[in-house]
Amino acid sequence: MTTIALKKQFSEYAIDQTHNPKNSSFEQLAQLLKGLQVGATQFASLSLDERVSLADSMQQGFLNIADAMVKAECDYKGLPLDTPAEAEAWALGPTFVIRHLRLIKESLQALKDEGNTKIGKVGRTIDKRLSVNVFPANAIDGILYKDVTIDVHMQADVTEDKLETQRAKFYKQPDHNGRVVLVLGAGNLAAIPAMDVLTKMFNEGKVCVLKMNPVNAYMGPYIEEAFAEAIVKGFLAVVYGGVEESEYLTHHDLVDEIHITGSDKTYNNIVWGPEGSERAERMARNNPVYTKEITSELGCVTPVIVVPGPYTKKELAFQAEDITSAFTMNASFMCCVPVSLITSKGWQQRDDFLNQMEKVIKTVPTRKAYYPGAKERWHALTDDREDVTIIGMEEGSNMPWAMIKGLSPDADEAIYRNEPFCSVLAETTLNTNDTIAFIEQAVEFVNNKLWGSLTANLIVHPKSMKDPKIAEAIERAITRLKYGVVSINGLNGMDFASGVAPWGAHPGSASTDIQSGQGWVHNSIMLEGVEKAVMWWPLTSFPKPAWYPSHRTSHKLCRKLTVLEQNASWTKVPGVVFPGMQGY
Are 518 and 297 in contact (CB under 8 A)? Predict the structure, then answer.
């Protein structure tokens, strides 16, 4: 069934001449919520076989719309088709949604066959908490992402017995018989709204009304077509609009809870009311105006801590490209892009490293600043500064890349307090020559000076880790970092893309100081009591990762990877490996 036919039959949304969905009327929203309320009870009681069948149809639906979705995103974001730039639209759109659905199906099948989801090796952290290996999720992951691991560190009260009995909680001890979740979708990536919905549906047994963000509302019809069966059965509705529609849904009696991927400002407006003295008084009394359950992912001033070590020129160049590939991805409109680079003032390779980063950035074309307010934020952070390097030109809607260098950790910098969400990265130098002191000071700085609690990065040389004192300092730094995802030597976004690992903010934030949010998404093995996910990468790898700007065949690789992720077939592995090797 076509997207427009689905709309006429189920949502009655009008489509304008440019195929952008028009705002849903309050009457339409009310009607859809009534349908979802009925569907919620039915959905909560579905058998595991029925859930597997539904997930399978949603996965097949995403495979069917993948090409069209990628073309639409490339057109909107100014990415040329049939070039390596196209890979971004695959990776940030259908590829990992399809992977996530495969992993969900595997967990549901394991629940049916064995009564529990499958986990990897269980260990202990340096502070004696349980850790659970979740990636590689299978042998193919181990080949495609060689020597990359993700371990989930559990909260202190999680015992081995609780680890077994409490995961997949909804399927063992349901805490509801049907709930309606409003998902306020992210505007930057096509995958986020879809994967947020999948988490709420399959991890928690709840039906969803997905309100698309106006920035990427054009993606809504593709999601509708892909998830047609869930919509037909009354388990999902996709709706459109701005602030008024969001407020209507947020306060509607038939909405039981909310999930937000967006801004802490949006969260605070909902929970505490408009900014001002009344809000401040309510926060001081811990008396929110909104008391429904809210989970959220609200961005981050993402740090990269570069620990001095015996890096070769090749290793330094590899890590410089790793950081810059993340920085330039999606025109820097991602909550996990590096924003704050932390270096040691006495590090002899510091200038070489920064120069190498600049060299890589110069090879990356400037990007369309499609996200609202990006130009204003960029200029507010860079204008009238002598310590900023501008790479590229501001032309039309394209904005240059900017690197601010040599900031003091004691300075009152706007980029410390606010996620820029534009193409600006800042370096802060710590005044110490001692490696262990640097690690301790860096953790203190990012925990207490930078806003956010979502994800942090460390770069540390394997030879440094052979020093027992440095190794212990790194392990303790990982436990002390107040971030939900910590990545060592590689792209933190792979935790998001893995589907199996939890993605979310460190659980220590209160609603009065929400930081990067509360709650976890993805987490296809449905762990409970998560503190953080910790990802380890090799310092360098061969072939180079597909997301590097210099990779020449990444678009071909991502197409093949999308097909492979449907069922993780070994017969499809050569189709991924070959373009991966060609692009080196």
Answer: no
Integer Cα distance of 574 and 571 in angstroms: 7
User: Could you read off the pLDDT of 399-454 as tens digits, one per residue?
Assistant: 999 999 999 999 999 999 999 999 999 999 999 999 999 999 999 999 999 999 99
Question: Nearest CA to 573 among 557, 552, 549?
Answer: 557
Contacts of 285 (CB under 8 A, 6+ apart): none
Domain for residue 252, yes or no? yes
CA distance 545 to 198: 27
Which conformational region is residue 503 in: left (phi greater than 0), alpha (psi within -120 to 50 degrees), or beta?
Answer: beta
Place of tokens 């993700």: 150
The span from the CA of 472 to the CA of 458, in Å, is: 14
- Residue range 186-195: mean pLDDT, rounded: 97
> What are the DSSP E strand ranges found in 400-527?
401-407, 424-430, 455-459, 485-488, 502-504, 520-522
**Would residue 63 count as lying in a domain?**
yes
List the strands of the sheet with 303-306, edge to edge: 122-124, 130-135, 149-154, 530-536, 485-488, 455-459, 303-306, 340-344, 424-430, 401-407, 388-391
For residue 489, what are its two tokens? Answer: 């030597």
> Residue 536: beta bridge partners?
149, 488
Instruction: Note whether 251 and 348 are same-domain residues.
Output: no
Question: What residue has token string 């130009």?
Answer: 375
Q: What is the pTM of this model?
A: 0.95
Residues 255, 326 within the same domain: no
In this structure, what are the phi and psi dihedrals at residue 578, rounded to the nearest 5 degrees?
-60, -55
Kind and range of the H or E element at 284?
Answer: helix 277-285
Residues 17 and 68 in one domain: yes
The two tokens of residue 482 are 């107040």
Domain that holds residue 33: 3-118+169-263
Q: How many domains in the chain? A: 3
pLDDT tens digits, one per residue of 227-276: 999 999 999 999 999 999 999 999 999 999 999 999 999 999 999 999 99
Q: Establish if 48 belongs to a structural domain.
A: yes
Whether omega before 420 lies within 30 degrees of 0, making that bond cis, reads no
Residue 537 domain-assigned (yes or no):
no
Do 355 and 404 belong to one domain? yes
